[in-house]
Amino acid sequence: xxxxxxxKAGQVGLVEVERPHIxxxxxxxxxxxxxxxxxxxxWSYRNPDIEAGHQNSGHEAIGIxxxxxxxxxxxxxxxxVIAPFTHGCGECDACRAGYDGxxxxxxxxxxxxxxxxxxxxFEYANWALVKIPGQPSDYTEAMLKSFLTLADVMPxxxxxxxxxxxxRGDKVVVIGxxxxxxxxxxxxxxxxASQIVLMSRHEDRQQMALxxxxxxxxxxxxEEGIAKVREILGGGADAxxxxxxxxxxxxxxxxxxHNGGRLGFVGVPHYNNRALGSTFAQNISVAGGAASVTTYDxxxxxxxxxxxxxxxxxxFTHSYSLDDINQAYKDMDERKTIKAMIVxx
Length: 345
Known about the structure:
11 helices; six-stranded parallel sheet
């Protein structure tokens, strides 16, 4: 089968490898129908020290169940499923509290990777996989795009809003205009925010966010951006949703909050110098981490997509074949597409 690997900094390519096989009783083998490139994949793509042949970090897919391990009772061959990027057990304290993104039983091995391929082995599958009614042929391409967002970016955007306790009437600021930031706008609207300000410098992304429910856009950064947000909101924000993963984005998020505000961060951190004590003087609540993908999908996000209440698949602005995976990465890196979907027939 074909599988994507990093070949050098700024380049990915395909290699032929053996199809995965069942290795544990709770494994499932999936034939991938759609996968995609995530903004977090670009961190490795840009890494000047990346080694040729290094495992690709792609981690989002929808597909068809091909084989199941002997312990699997929740899906069967032929089922159409969402493959979350996380592998919660559904039974530990963390999962039962709705934090399956950081399952207590699967510490350090809870994330998928290498999913930009024709087949994948999904570990700890009995609870984590999410069944979609019917088959891919039953749905439009637009619906398939929205289903694919449910593997990561839509639940991740929702997670930012959830851990920041966004509630009806809140004033919310979203830091980051990529797919996760766009989904955070959708989530803030779902939870009843009265004002949603997106910090973005890109016109196409600004327009999409306004259509998703943002009420204002701020292009400025730093102190100027903070002042503009506070002017629009008539003071600080109740909640800031950080969807980038840089120290500058965290500083921006903390700066727009009023004292006693709440920060939800879901951008994978690429900083190690953010001291918790820096929030003391503001009484800021800080929470974040890997999204509870299976919990949110099973409880309400899949239904919201099926009912047409939300259409997060619009974040996929370009589609590519697996053979064109390098172009998909290049276009993501150059901001020519918000999120690149890979179609596998």
